[in-house]
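STRUCTURE REQUEST FORM
Protein name: Mycinamicin IV hydroxylase/epoxidase
Source organism: Actinomadura macrotermitis
Requested output: structure tokens
Priority: standard
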Amino acid sequence: MTAEHTDRSGYTTPAPVRELWLQTPVREFTTETGDRRWLVTGMEQVRAVMADPRFSRAEARRLGAAIGPAAVFRNTGINDLDPPEHTRLRRLVAGAFSARRIRGLRPRIQQITDELIASLVAAGPPADLASGLCYPLPVTVICEILGVPGEDRQRFRGWADRVVSTGAYPPEEALGALKAMVAYMAELVDAKRRDPDESLLQDLITARDEQDRLSEDELVTLGCGLLLAGGESTATTLGKGLVALMDNPGQLALLRADPSLVPAAVDEVLRYTTLGVHPYGGHIRATTSDVDLDGTTIPAHSVVHACLPAANLDPKAFPDPERFDVTREGAADHVAFGYAMHRCLGAQLAKLELEVAIGSVLAAFPGLRLTVPAEDVPYKHGFLITGLRALPVTW
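Status: completed
Returned output:
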């Protein structure tokens, strides 16, 4: 497969893969390396895979098929576990991401956003919104939640880029960054034991030291995983969402005329854009037994790709799905955050960050526009997530 297709969200896939999305929602296929796998693309079918415990993340890792930041760790991360182990770790951090606690973060998220925008205004146009807003906002927020000192955040960003590399950096460089990040997290845990604070990482330390609810390795791996998940994915979605708005001036005008549409627009951004985490679509599972899905039997120990981007573009779920529409009814039914037991813990936090950032950008820059055509916005490739290298704008 050599031909490629790049959509307006920067998601690049081999053209035959895109064709598979448009065919039957459950089908067997052959990867570029000759592996036989199963591709699930319909919204109904993807949800079934995500909710059915017979489609196992742990089995996928055992077969060597799981990808994602957790897959590079020596120890299994939360996203590579099935219940009851997954449930145990998820409960440890769920409270930090409750709706009440996330709502309480709005003033601080707004303050961070205002400070970043003020710096952009002071420097004047043109500007790079990727480096000036999209990346520093979520990284700052997740670091504050976990209790990562401000002076260490840029160092972490360099490690994170390499850890999630799938070719952008040499393997030995990625492995070195991983080792450095794990060592740093272990040191941070020790520092908080000596000087406790009120961070989420401190809560996990308490669960380890006083309640024996997780191991030391699980503590360190979970801390690294939360940092990785809380920064890049939200930054990428924010950047791609702003591109989509500027590339659809009619929709941008609607949002400017009625800022109350921002929450609905965020759901449409999440549905319309994609993180590009894998050529076949994201969440990988493996069957623990024969499973009948939509009238097709998938044999036991088969690797299954639940293609979230395709599900979000399923015309049965979203009429005219490739149209960007901030007033779309039912946009919130997307599966950008996953579904069921593996739905992203930080979904509400990410949505809040997106709402605050998009609303603030539109208010601060009434003449905001791209300085290049939307199709020429530069994207990063060779990473688990296809993020923006830059977002060049003026106003």
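Reviewer notes: The longest strand covers residues 282-287. The domain at 4-390 is CATH 1.10.630.10 (Cytochrome p450).
Form closed.
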